[in-house]
Amino acid sequence: MGFFDMFRRAPVIRDADALADFIDSNAAFLVQKGMYEYSRARAGHYAKVLLQEPEFLAAIEVARWQAYPLGLAMVAEMVEKLLHPHIADDRRAGVDALKDLVLWVFDRYPRPEPFAAATWNEARQDLARRLDLIALHPPKAVKDIPTPVTQLYFDMMPIHDKLKAPDFLAISNYLRVSLINIHDQLIDRLDSAAVAQSLLPPSAER
């Protein structure tokens, strides 16, 4: 990256492919950043040592893939909130199209080595279920979107349970603030009308 590149605005998201890349990268960032930052904070002065330990590296590899579908679900619901004005006339079709896109993002990756095929398939099915649920309630405030999965995410942290007991609120706040930041970034980049048209089948286009 050149010096002046840092002052350039990120490209506008105008179609489903660009939206897929945004969802993918931000879902991964959301869950991984929280895990690494929390592990560093818990390890304190020993953080540098911890982050090089083979057992920790193996544990966080499992944890980040385990949490990735939760990240996809949170970011997807936040995306749907922004697309809602353009899909509200047939919200079910809009959510189904977004669901198909997110599952395609999930399927772009081969099954991670630590997971059995049945376990990874269950993770995909759980993601599909969470995406289906988006259409069953009005769009939430962004800060409330992580609430249903916060405990699951907290339990996935690669830290012994005895060491993380008092930190649920900190993790909850991390997910809320981080998702709000991702939402603000997307507002600046999203051409929501164009993306909605790209996602929806011709019969559902406005």
Salient structural properties:
9 helices, 206 residues, mainly alpha, 68% helix
Number of strands: 0
SSE topology string: HHHHHHHHH
Indicate how many domains the architecture comprises: 1
> Alpha-carbon distance between the termini?
39 Å
Oligomer: single chain
Silhouette: globular
| Nearest-integer average pLDDT | 89
Number of helices: 9
Radius of gyration: 18 Å
Structural class based on helices, strands and sheet pairing: mainly alpha
Spans of at least 5 consecutive residues whose pLDDT stays below 50 are none
Can you offer a commentary on this structure?
The chain starts with 15 loop residues before the first helix and ends in a 7-residue tail after the last helix. It has one domain (21-201). Helix 1 (16-43) crosses helix 4 (91-107) and helix 1 (16-43) packs antiparallel against helix 8. It has helices at residues 16-43, 47-50, 54-87, 91-107, 117-133, 150-155, 161-164, 168-189, 192-199. The chain is built from nine helices and no strands. With 206 residues, the protein is mostly helical. It is 68% helix and 0% strand.
